[in-house]
Q: What sequence folds into this?
């Protein structure tokens, strides 16, 4: 075990970029600037990516999370699940190494805030942690293109992004559909 002090972004990036089998990310809040490099890395290497997050409308409205990065994750084939009472922040590579700490997968959490984490490289402990998280995944709501489309059909989306087609654009990114008709737009 190793204590990690801020900034934590390089530690999380190195953990994820060092994976050769699978990456698991657990963070209530997700921002594009922090998640997109990991999405790109996993997609380019064909690595399975599991993401557990909250994905609450209030978090998108407040700017704590970015809905568009969830669309990117879905488009990349990530197994994205949502759990409303999630507070843990855990990043696992290959089921053998993990970072557990206080930092969300956001620029604030990884670079700006005073956060702390520990790197766990004891295989048995990481497996124990991974098993617990798999249980959370099992009860989490699957977030796929249909889920995203339902979320984005909420009339608040155009107001959040300041344009009428914002929700439709993100939905098309996630599902690959060329056209979406929104009701109430």
A:
């Amino acid at each position: 075990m190793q204590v990690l002090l801020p900034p934590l972004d390089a530690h999380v990036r190195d953990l994820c970029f060092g994976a050769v089998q699978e990456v698991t990310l657990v963070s209530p809040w997700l921002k594009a600037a922090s998640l997109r490099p990991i999405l790109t890395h996993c997609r380019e290497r064909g690595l399975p990516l599991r993401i557990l997050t909250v994905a609450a409308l209030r978090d998108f409205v407040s700017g704590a999370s970015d809905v568009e990065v969830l669309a990117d994750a879905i488009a990349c084939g990530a197994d994205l699940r949502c759990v409303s009472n999630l507070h843990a922040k855990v990043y696992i590579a290959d089921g053998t190494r993990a970072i557990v700490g206080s930092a969300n997968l956001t620029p604030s959490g990884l670079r700006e805030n005073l956060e702390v984490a520990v790197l766990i490289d004891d295989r048995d402990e990481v497996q124990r942690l991974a098993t617990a998280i798999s249980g959370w995944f099992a009860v989490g709501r699957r977030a796929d293109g249909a889920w995203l489309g339902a979320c984005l059909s909420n009339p608040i989306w155009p107001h959040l992004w300041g344009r009428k087609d914002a929700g439709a654009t993100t939905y098309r990114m996630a599902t690959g559909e060329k056209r979406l008709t929104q009701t109430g737009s």
